[in-house]
Amino acid sequence: MDPITNPYAPGAGQRPPELAGRDEQLRTFDVVLERIARGRAERSIVLTGLRGVGKTVLLNALRSSAVRANWGTGKFEARPDQRLRRPLAAAAHQAVRELGHPRGSEVDQVLGIVKAFALREAPSAAKLRDRWQPGIDVPAVTGRADSGDIEIDLVELFTDIGGLAADVGKGVAIFIDEMQDLDPEDVSALCAACHEISQSGLPVIVVGAGLPHLPAVLSASKSYSERLFRYSRIDRLPREAADQALVGPAAEEGCEFTSEALDEMYAITAGYPYFIQAYGKVVWDVAPTSPVTAQDIRVAAPEAESELAVGFFGSRYERATPAEREYLRAMADAALLNSPGAETDSPVTADDDASGVTAYGIVGEREAVPTSAVAEVLGRKPQSLSPARDALIKKGLIYSGERGLIAFTVPHFGRYLRTTALVG
Question: Quick one: where's region Disordered (predicted)?
Answer without folding.
Answer: 1-21
